[in-house]
Design a protein that fits this description.
The complex is a heterodimer of chains A (326) and B (248).
Chain A: E1 2-10, E2 13-14, H1 16-29, E3 36-42, H2 47-52, E4 60-64, H3 74-88, E5 92-96, H4 99-111, E6 115-120, E7 125-126, E8 132-138, E9 143-149, E10 154-158, E11 174-177, H5 180-183, E12 188-195, E13 207-211, H6 221-230, E14 234-237, H7 239-243, E15 264-268, H8 274-280, E16 285-290, H9 297-300, E17 303-306, H10 309-325
Parallel strand pairs in A: 1-3, 1-5, 3-4, 4-11, 5-10, 6-10, 13-14, 13-15, 15-16, 16-17
Antiparallel strand pairs in A: 1-2, 7-8, 8-9
Chain B: E1 3-6, E2 9-11, E3 33-35, H1 37-53, E4 58-63, H2 69-78, E5 82-86, H3 93-105, E6 111-115, H4 126-134, E7 138-147, E8 153-160, E9 163-170, E10 173-177, H5 189-195, E11 200-203, E12 213-218, E13 227-229, H6 234-244
The chains are: A alpha/beta (326), B alpha/beta (248).
Chain lengths: 326, 248
């Protein structure tokens, strides 16, 4: 069996999901005797960074021969990946279920005629007959579904933060990847790009501090940002907060917003409506801070503080800073 | 433009999820079904685009049984011109996308809109698969869609990892819709009356099979009881987060 791994970069830097993708593939299939873990880079990174994926178990990295993959475009990326899959004789493709993965995986499932297991929570159980049992969340984290996945060609996409990358191996060789001269003319044309600068992307974040109506107004958001800063966390908000334009829509987590599963989720002044919990309840550890002791969030929280957000937040921030300094 | 909007029906967002005795399906007792919220945005945007560019039709399509007809009628009441239902029990994204593609290939749509994902199975794959089946460009997770003044070209903003970008896309294309695109419309009485006489066509499926076989459903594991701290015990909370939960 031969595994191909799609690794993402942004502005020439490997993304966190690149390490997770390599580790996900290696940790799952190395114990089953797979020895070939080839990475296809979605855009160029330094030779040294590419070779460094070998430290996580990659055996070869294919680096685009020109810049045509540097910016993400689903047509071009899926055409190049299809070509790499066909030339390498791989029978399995692994990628992260990121924005890029959500565009690429379904296109390749059709063009490569592969079975797609998308948004898998943790490494599959590989059965005797080679089929996999995979689990994913359904009904916006309110349920789990287990599927059997079989087929000669398969694609697996996993949710970000599904596992911690593990060091195992040494730097590996890097070879050029044919980009098919940009895979022909694209029918989308980029006009402008707005990058979020200096902020931890919400979907990748290991820690998230989220504010609700209990913050009483956008003018108090420095308290959320202060706590986020103290523990290197991303910031998020509840639906009412984004609906009232206290914060932008891209921070809204919940059933109709972004679904996240960080290691630590601190919900400040959010009551815990079922729609909000749907987006965050797979977080590993949940802390709820709310004035209302009956707030539903306390039913799913691991740790709770009954108190006013404006009073508790500075104290918590201070305690974290003290603890980090000691 | 002639726009096709792919709709799924999903349990209302307040639904408490429970599964059937064999864990193979949702326990539908008392479950209210709604248009998938992202698909509803797609429908509103389709109507807005045709209002802005002066013409064309909006068709809604659904893969599923007759139990979805109230949801299709609601879409007609909101303003769609006609509805199509492909008579098949939807089992996974592959089957839905394959059936939709087979239908679309015999028609002449300029644009296919759908939600970025359904809030029941949350895969977000149908738009991407459809774009590949049709060999049309894909713009996933769009937060704005605007006419450009040039016929057959739309300007679309899309969310991406670490930011947002604006692209121009040549039609025909598949665009999946994200919150922020627009606000859903509430059907008025005239719309509801008109919906009764709008065409709802039922189409036979091509028999495209699913990829995955479902073994079982389960509820997420119950969480441990909450451990409480007073507002003046923040050092103890931080200690617990470090030593017990190991997340700091």
């Amino acid at each position: 069996m031969k595994v191909l791994i799609y690794a993402e970069q942004q502005d020439g830097q490997l993304k966190k999901s690149a390490f997770e993708a390599v580790s996900f593939a290696v940790q799952t299939w190395a114990p089953h005797g797979v020895q070939d873990f080839t990475v296809v880079m979605g855009g160029r990174v330094s030779e040294q960074d590419a070779a460094g994926l070998g430290n996580y178990g990659a055996t070869l990295v294919m680096m685009p021969e020109d810049g045509s993959l540097d910016a993400f475009e689903p047509h071009v990326h899926s055409a190049v990946l299809l070509d790499a899959l066909q030339k390498s004789g791989a029978d399995l493709l692994v990628m992260a279920h990121t924005y890029a993965g959500k565009s690429l995986a379904p296109r390749l499932a059709v063009s490569w005629q592969a079975t797609l297991a998308a948004a898998v929570n943790h490494p599959p159980e590989v059965q005797q007959d080679g089929s996999w049992t995979v689990q994913r969340t359904v009904y916006s984290n309110k349920g789990l579904a287990t599927y059997q996945v079989s087929g000669d060609r398969r694609i697996l996409s996993f949710t970000p933060n599904a596992l911690k990358p593990v060091l195992q191996g040494a730097p590996c060789p890097v070879q050029p990847l044919s980009t098919l001269a940009g895979a022909g003319a694209s029918r989308t044309h980029r006009l402008e790009v707005q990058k979020v600068q200096g902020k931890i992307p919400l979907t990748e974040a290991e820690r998230v501090i989220s504010g609700g109506r209990g913050l009483k107004g956008p003018e108090n958001w420095h308290l959320i940002e202060g706590l986020a800063d103290a523990c290197a966390a991303a910031t998020a908000c509840s639906k009412p907060v984004s609906d009232m334009h206290w914060r932008s829509h891209d921070e809204h987590v919940g059933q109709t917003g972004i679904t996240i599963k960080p290691d630590l989720y601190i919900a400040v002044g959010i009551s815990g409506a079922i729609q909000h919990l749907a987006g965050v309840s797979s977080s590993k550890t949940i802390v709820a801070i709310n004035t209302d002791p009956e707030a539903p969030f306390f039913k799913v929280a691991d740790y709770g503080v009954v108190g006013d957000a404006l009073e508790v937040l500075p104290r918590l921030t201070e305690a974290i800073r003290r603890s980090a300094g000691s | 433009m002639n726009i096709l909007v792919c709709l799924s029906q999903v349990p209302d967002t307040t639904t408490k999820i429970a599964f059937s005795a064999d864990n193979k399906s949702l326990n539908k007792t008392g479950v209210q079904y709604i248009i998938n919220p992202y698909d509803e945005l797609a429908l509103t945007k389709a109507l807005e685009l045709n209002e802005a560019t002066g013409g064309g039709t909006v068709t809604v399509i659904h893969v599923g049984g007759a139990d979805a007809e109230p949801v299709l009628r609601k879409a007609l009441a909101i303003g769609a011109d006609q509805a199509v239902r492909i008579e098949a029990e939807p089992l996974d994204s592959r089957q839905v996308a394959g059936e939709l593609a087979a239908y679309i290939q015999g028609q002449s749509y300029d644009l296919v809109l759908t939600g970025r994902e359904s809030i029941d199975y949350n895969c977000g794959l149908v738009g991407g698969m459809l774009s590949q089946y049709l060999d049309w460009p894909l713009v996933n997770v769009a937060t704005s869609i605007d006419p450009t003044g040039q016929a057959g070209v739309l300007a679309v903003s899309r969310d991406m990892d670490g930011g947002r970008e604006k692209v121009e896309v040549s039609l025909p294309a598949v665009i999946t819709c994200q919150k922020e695109l627009t606000e859903p419309r509430i059907p008025n009485m005239r719309g509801i009356m008109a919906a009764r006489s709008k065409p709802l066509q039922v189409v036979s499926p091509q028999g495209i099979g699913p990829d995955l076989s479902l073994l079982s459903h389960a509820l997420p594991p119950a969480r441990q009881a909450c451990r409480y701290f007073e507002a003046d015990q923040m050092d103890a909370l931080v200690e617990a987060l470090r030593q017990q939960a190991k997340v700091l």
